[in-house]
Write a structure and sequence with these properties.
- About 60% of the residues lie in helices and about 0% in strands.
- By secondary structure, the protein is mainly α.
- This is DUF2891 domain-containing protein.
């Protein structure tokens, strides 16, 4: 290690005995060594957590059953097993969970290439992302009875998050897979583009049909993909639907099976369309109850009573999504905003509860999807 930082003590250092020189050097360099050691431990801990999340997705992306198939049948020929209906995204219990399970794998592989699961991740993605499989997915979107509302907006938003990840991951496999997925991406963007002008009101529920969360992922995609027309249309829609909202009834949350917060998700969305100063003003009117004393108890952590109940287990996801959304809100406020401490405190409490559930206390009703939420949070994907 270079000792140039010792020069200011000059002649005094030269006059010291060898032992005293050694002691002084240790005192001066030990903070740096301790910091490096702490960084190494943090990196090791992060990788351990990432490996856990990867295991969850690897265990289900090609696990066909149990499964929920939701589609309109216009004839007996439409009664088919999941893998025949959508040959790329048939695992992880349902279509949208399969999609974001694949996103999880791309995220872990791109951010943690040193993970021992890297070869398995590449293998599983190669199995899913073939031209034949994606042609089958497009055919399902085009079939009679599917319509333009299939997986709208939640699953469609996660698919765009998946292709965003592939665009940003600098690897030959990612480039090849993105090319393969482009026909389905084009179909999805066309469906959403057709839908947005017709949407008269926002959808403010705490589950899949919520528009605030989905619009955030879609807006992120538009900027990554450089689709200015879609970005402009979506920004116009967001402003039309949400800009005049005030006094969001946070006290009414959560509902018993929420995995998204209507109020917090909207606040996280609007940071993407406002300047820092304008966002701070809008937030004051929208969530006036956020304290300035640093107390994070203004929004309570949710508790799951029965992990085997797929709907009740949604609340673990609520803790995770609130955590990343609160972090997003805090990141968009001016640095001297007195609300930041309370927002970050609440985010940390929700994060601790949510991540602990994913690592230590899982049932398949949660494990088939919660790893994606935990990965989005832990890798700070939305920031």
């Amino acid at each position: 290690m270079a000792l140039s930082f010792l020069k200011p003590i000059g002649i005094y250092f030269m006059k010291l005995t060898l032992l005293r020189k050694l002691i002084l050097v240790l005192i001066l360099v030990s903070p740096s060594l301790m910091a490096n050691n702490a960084d190494a431990k943090a990196s090791s801990s992060d990788l351990t957590v990432a490996n856990r999340f990867a295991q969850l997705a690897l265990a289900c992306v090609h696990k066909e059953y149990p499964n929920i198939v939701k589609h309109m049948m216009t004839g007996a020929e439409h009664v088919k097993p999941p893998k025949q209906l959508y040959p790329a995204f048939y695992g992880c219990f349902d279509w949208h969970s399969s999609v974001h399970g694949h996103w999880l794998l791309t995220r872990i592989a791109s951010q943690y290439p040193e993970t021992p699961h890297y070869p398995d991740i590449i293998k599983h993605l190669d199995i899913s992302f073939t031209e034949e499989n994606i042609a089958g997915e497009v055919a399902y979107f085009d079939r009679e009875g599917t319509g333009t509302s299939f997986e709208r907006p939640y699953g469609l938003a996660w698919f765009l998050q998946l292709t965003s990840e592939l665009r940003e991951w600098n690897s030959p496999e990612a480039k090849r897979w993105l090319t393969t997925l482009l026909p389905l991406e084009k179909k999805i963007v066309a469906n959403v583009t057709d839908w947005l002008p017709k949407l008269s009101f926002p959808i403010r529920v705490g589950e899949h049909s919520q528009t605030a969360f989905a619009f955030g992922l879609m807006l992120d995609w538009s900027r990554t993909a450089g689709d200015v027309a879609f970005e402009n249309l979506l920004t116009k829609t967001i402003t039309r639907l949400y800009a005049n909202d005030v006094n969001c009834p946070l006290a009414y949350e959560p509902s018993g099976q929420d995995f998204l917060s209507p109020c917090v998700a909207e606040a996280d969305l609007m940071r993407r369309v406002y300047s820092r100063e304008n966002y701070a003003k809008w937030l004051s009117a929208f969530l006036p109850s956020v304290p300035i004393d640093g107390d994070g108890s203004w929004i309570n952590v949710a508790t799951v009573v029965d992990k085997s109940d797929g709907k009740l287990a949604h609340l673990d996801g609520l803790n995770l999504s609130r955590a990343w959304m609160l972090e997003g809100i805090a990141s968009a406020l001016p640095v001297d905003d007195k609300r930041v401490a309370a927002i970050n405190s609440a985010a940390q409490a929700h994060k601790a509860a949510g991540v602990d559930a994913v690592i230590n206390d899982m049932h398949y009703m949660g494990s088939h999807w919660l790893g994606s939420f935990a990965t989005y949070l832990e890798t700070q994907r939305g920031l």
